[in-house]
Design a protein that fits this description.
The structure holds four protein chains of four kinds.
Chain A: H1 7-27, H2 31-55, H3 62-92
Helix pairs in contact in A: 1-2, 2-3
Chain C: H1 3-24, H2 28-48, H3 52-76, H4 92-112, H5 128-135, H6 139-160, H7 170-179
Helix pairs in contact in C: 1-2, 2-3
Chain D: H1 4-21, H2 26-63, H3 79-88, H4 100-115, H5 135-156, H6 160-191, H7 196-201, H8 210-213, H9 215-228, H10 240-243, H11 253-278, H12 289-308, H13 316-344
The chains are: A mainly alpha, B mainly alpha, C mainly alpha, D mainly alpha.
Amino acid sequence: MHVEIGLSHYLALSAIVFCIGVFGMLTRRNGIGVLMSIELMFNAVNITLVAFARYVTPVEITGQVIAAFTIAVAAAEATVALAIVLLIYQHHRGIDVDRINIMKW
Amino acid sequence: MSEFAAIAVFLVLGVGFVLFNFLLSNLIRPKNPNPIKQSTYECGETPVGPAWIQFNVRFYIFCLIFVIFDVEIVFLFPWALVFQSLGLFAFVEMVIFVGILMFGLLYAWKKGLLRWY
Amino acid sequence: MDTITLVFFALALLIITSALFVVTSKNIFHSAIFLIMALFGAAGMFVMLEAPFLAAAQVLIYVGAIAILMIFAVMLTARIADESIIHTNEQVPAGLAIALGLLAVILYGLWNTPLTIHGGTPPSGGGHKLGELFLTTFVLPFEVVSVLLLAALVGALIIARRDPGATPRPNDQSAEQTGA
Amino acid sequence: MLELDKLIGFVGAQIAALVTALGLGPDWVTLVQLVVAALTLIGFASVMVLGLVYAERKVSAHIQMRVGPMRVGWHGILQTLADAVKLLQKEDITPSNVDRAIYFWAPIVTFVAAFAVYAVIPFGRGLVVTDLNIGILYILAITTFGVIGLLMAGWSSNNKYSLLGGFRSAAQVVSYEVPMALAVIGVVMLTQTLSMVQIVGQQEKFYQWYVWRQPIGFLIYFVAATAEVNRTPFDLPEADSELVAGFVTEYSGMKFAMFFLAEFLNMFTVAAIGTTLFFGGWNGPVLPSWMWFLIKTLAGVFVLMWMRWTYPRLRVDQLMGFAWKFLLPLAILNILITGLFVVLF
């Protein structure tokens, strides 16, 4: 069996990881668990970006630059979101996101 | 990319070495477990409640500042690699980049968040 | 099967299994550990894609910072590490349907899209090229990143700090009222 | 015989010939060579740690006007070997309410994080397993797994001392990682490369050592590295008077030994990185290159030991305040000054 690993393999892998992330984001009750799923989705997108950088623009590695920015955004998102989770925990003594409906009218 | 094969080998063999040691030790060491020996060590007292207790937020505050500065470091490395060839302009860009982030540190400092107690 | 293929499938297996454990594990600390494994696998993928600098950045930021922050957050919200709490909501069938549907759509799109691949020698990957791009073409996003980080830092600090004087908690207020 | 790089070249060629004779391809040759290299370094690391533990006990003893271990072998030289054998046959107690899987994997993660660094350290001219073009960044990245390992140990033990020790240690290590990385960036600004081998290659002459051009950077690195490996005066995670043994409280037998091994490996690592970045690595006259590397690195290790038995321990608030309010601004200042010098001159 000889398989030449190419762009489509990376894209397929990325799609699978992204969908696992979507599943986790929808079904997790725990706020931190939801955040972890979102990080998985970020990573799936990053794999896509780097794969495109490798196979479509191998010399001008634009995709890698965007991936680097994605990592920075993910870090910023994680700090703020986790701080919010902590605040929710302090107020509700729990971080079950399904019960956080205070913003609902 | 091929030079990273060494890293993979080192990771696998590192795990292998530890597991080998565990196995070797498993073959020659005594095994006499009893409930008191297996209880949680708390200087002889009986432990009260689980150890997974709630933590002080101070640890978290420092970790939070660390995350932001870690990202800064990762962006500083590519700059440090090329700024000589790009001259003064690149240097000024970095001064702005670092300067903006220093406001964050200054903010944390002024609000007393860098104090441990 | 050549080495590249073998390594790719090994890494893909690692990433997918860890990702599955991240979203299904009962214990949130285990989820965090599996998340670290998935992120490390992704870093391996970056190495395969000739982006070693990005791989190191990924490990440094995701594993070294974000994952640790998450573990700290897990500790600060200790009760949720308790496995007896139901960890998924009632949306499991719906979520599964949505995720599988999305996967089917993406894979269908992938199958039917002609991918144009351009050849060329990638840069050495030591980060030089990345630095050049940061400081020339992408200089504005580069500076905006620092503003974003500043905003995130200040915002997160305001939210996370526990300052009893500034933001009295409900039970503190009631204690004061009964005292008065 | 002292030309180790020639010996290694010879062994490598022999392995290649042998593997090719077995009818296997070039990938297998590389694999077998790497496995042999890794096993050699595992052996080197184990022997070195035994030596370092012995040295630590002797140094501490003589600083305190004692004699230290004297019984096993000449001047107790086999003492640590005896201790290792003893640890091997110690009963491995797993407390009943630990999180078993994570409790088991924590020492493995910690050890591997410490050991994987050795793949890129240039031990001498031509004596490096792999010369990554992101070498120093790789070291910074892979060592963060050490933090994960100690958090795993602290959390899984289900013990209040372990947890507090683990989290305190993690907070300390990450706090000092920032000034340490910034000090490294100061050097990278001058070297324009991340490869360890090239960094050493740029410091051939005594006056080219980066310590002369980065004195502040070196001091920051030295302090931060001491804190990274939890040595006194920064050994709060193992403050035995308040936390028993920190995150290793519940560990015994071989699992404990792995944490111990990783700790000493890390000590050697930070000294080796300091040597590579600031003191010219294996460059030196007359003696073979690997000997110069070992002399410089072991001198660094000795200073770490010397400090341990000289300075008292800091308080937690002093520790954190020092990292964020003093070292971090100083490191940023160092980068700015370096940049200004490079741009202007």
